[in-house]
Amino acid sequence: GQMDEGTELSLSIAQVVQRLRGSHLHSQIERQAKECLHQPEIKLESLKEDVRSFLKTSGWERKLQNAVYRELQLPPSHPAAPPEHLKEPLAYMRKAQANWEKRILKSLNSMSTELGLPLARKRPAVEQKELTNKWNEMGTDEPDLSRFRPVYAPKDFLEVLINLRNPNHDCSEDVSARSHWGLIQVPLNVRDIPQLRRAYSELNLTTGQLGIDDHAHMHPGNEKKLVEEQDSAAAQQYSRQGCPTGLRADLWALILNATNQPQDVMHYEQLKAGVIQHDLLVDNLIYKDVKLTASNDDYYFVFEDFLYQVLLCFSRDTTVLEHFKYNSATPPKSYIQGNMGNEDCAVVYPPNGVIPFHGFSMYVAPLCFLYNEPSKLYSAFREMYIRHFFRLHSISSSSSGIVSLCLQFEKLLQTHLPQLFYHLRQIGAQPLRIAFKWMVRAFSGYLSTDQLLLLWDRILGYDSLEVVAVLAAAVFAFRAENLMEVTSLASAEVCLFHIGLLCVCVCVYVFETLISVLSLSPTYSWKAVNSS
Predict the structure, then answer these.
(1) What is the mean pLDDT of the segment spanning 211-230?
(2) pTM, to two decimals
(3) Closest CA to 161 of 189, 191, 186
(4) pLDDT number for residue 301
(5) Angle in degrees, CA 305, 465, 521, rounded to 5
(6) How far apart are CA 494 and CA 486, in angstroms?
(7) Which residue ranges does the record assign to the Rab-GAP TBC domain (predicted)?
(8) Annotated domain spans of the chain
(9) CA quadruple 98, 101, 107, 111: dihedral positive or negative?
(10) Thinking of the domain 193-246+396-531, which architecture would CATH place it in?
């Protein structure tokens, strides 16, 4: 009822107020308000109004609005619900996630033991000085990383997802589960095409779409105004139709509220100092991952040094721990300095609670095209991670979580391209085995950068990763004719290997074709989709 909604609203207001109360912004606004008291236009008899209008004209009110907006983007915590419910409401998902975490941590600990390397050590002064000097060219270093292997790769994670089951759910009774041809066997609600059409109404062909038609949907000058007005909510709405290349960096920073204030720069410098003081075992995993992925990528190899800087700082950033309130994962704990089993000596490791896996650096790489100032690049990445990317490698029932994305991808294919799905399944080429690696990385490293950024525009604009699943299905639709000819998983992989060459016409147009053609006439054959 009415009362509940009111109560809920006042609770979430109270939460936002409480979260902002301790923030740097709060103390800045307080200081501004005190300082403005000395100004002649502030009169004692209209003190409250005068201070308020001063804060408005000097831009502080907008800053506060954007900060509130950012808080509202994060999942709310309901005071009545137990904290684990905010992390993940379904017990079997929580359990699966906990078991998966044990495996990862075991893998990390055994690497430490086998290689005889501590999880963390203080660097001697000489080494600290060396690292300080070569901070901007860490890529020139060629440490021997042959002994290090990634703690896990996406395909290991996929196996875990394929084996997920809801113990309270009897599949034999459920017709829809029985008739599901895919690998994901858990009952989650994912949106079908008509629901997607309603949710993503701005993605239809009648509105100008950036990428096909680079400046149809806004009068020149309007986007600039958006940036000048510094309005996060408006920037987010705008980004749903794709951002113009020249303004994307500013618009994303606004949406993410990654404004690069002096305190952000200071925070980044503190993290950097932490990297220089201590060497962590995970640093080697980061080095190796960058060498294996971004350094071999035609687009991203030039950013190698930026990637080391951002990822090494990220692993030390304890503010990232905040997001575990609404992440189904729990930060891993380890025993430092050989105090095995002594709970008091257990610390969160790495300090940010995130163990990188094979391909992790690809979450940062595309952002290097937008931001060339390390602290700004860092803030944008951290916000992208705690809002979106963490969902791609933790087990949860969230509609943006990887389990839902896999299920959504499979259902879209099975509903709209049944012949193709059936054929691939018969030859032992389950579509998810091919598409999983794209989805886990939100397509980073698989699409050319300009296309990828258009996809990420939508993730930010809609505050959801669903578009990733739809795009994965769209790629199969686009290649359906060729895929009907393949006879093995390997040849299907080859057929889809060059998705990097697909342009926005797939990102946007096939998305459209899938959604418009198919929902107008479900019996449409895949050939028609293909030739359109």
Answers:
(1) 61
(2) 0.81
(3) 186
(4) 86
(5) 135
(6) 9
(7) 242-463
(8) 2-73, 193-246+396-531
(9) negative
(10) Orthogonal Bundle (1.10)
